[in-house]
């Protein structure tokens, strides 16, 4: 199997409810995220067309998170919960045949990131509270 990766960034504000420290106040980040897709190359030699993946990221992620207050989307928008939310948005649109969403990585700052896989999503998605 081959793993491809598509990185993207978005600017957003958030605050962490019930957190005691400066992050309990509204502040912003330039987030970076990566989508990892695993599968066999198809007859064109691709696991997934990068153009198709870019379109999905723009439609499913950036249109909702870029230049937003993340608390309007995710009740507790930690990097961990942002990654779970991204998985929930992308997984159903990527998983087809032998192609699977492998990892989601979210950087809150250049030196701080989280990585989740399908097991993490299955184990922790019940903790994710999405704002309607």
From TrEMBL:
The UniProt entry, under InterPro entries, shows: 6-PTP_synth/QueD, 6-PTP_synth/QueD_sf
A single GO molecular function term of this UniProt record: metal ion binding
Query: What single Pfam family name could you report for this chain, choosing any that match?
Result: PTPS
Q: Which reaction does it catalyse?
A: 7,8-dihydroneopterin 3'-triphosphate + H2O = 6-carboxy-5,6,7,8-tetrahydropterin + triphosphate + acetaldehyde + 2 H(+)
A single GO BP annotation from the record? tRNA queuosine(34) biosynthetic process
Q: In which pathway does it act?
A: Purine metabolism; 7-cyano-7-deazaguanine biosynthesis
Q: Which residues form the active site?
A: 23, 67, 108
UniProt similarity note: Belongs to the PTPS family. QueD subfamily.
Protein name in UniProt: 6-carboxy-5,6,7,8-tetrahydropterin synthase
Q: Which organism is it from?
A: Acetomicrobium thermoterrenum DSM 13490
């Amino acid at each position: 199997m081959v793993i491809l990766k598509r990185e993207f960034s978005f600017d957003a504000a958030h605050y962490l409810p019930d957190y005691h420290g400066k992050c309990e106040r509204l502040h912003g980040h330039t987030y970076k995220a990566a989508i990892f897709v695993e599968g066999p190359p198809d007859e064109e030699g691709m696991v997934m067309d990068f153009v198709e993946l870019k379109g999905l990221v723009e439609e499913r992620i950036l249109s909702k998170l870029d230049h937003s207050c993340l608390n309007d989307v995710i009740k507790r928008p930690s990097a961990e919960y942002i990654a779970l939310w991204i998985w929930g948005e992308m997984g159903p649109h990527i998983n087809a045949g032998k192609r699977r969403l492998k990892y989601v990585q979210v950087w809150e700052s250049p030196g701080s990131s989280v990585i989740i896989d399908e097991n993490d999503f299955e184990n922790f998605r019940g903790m994710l509270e999405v704002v309607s």
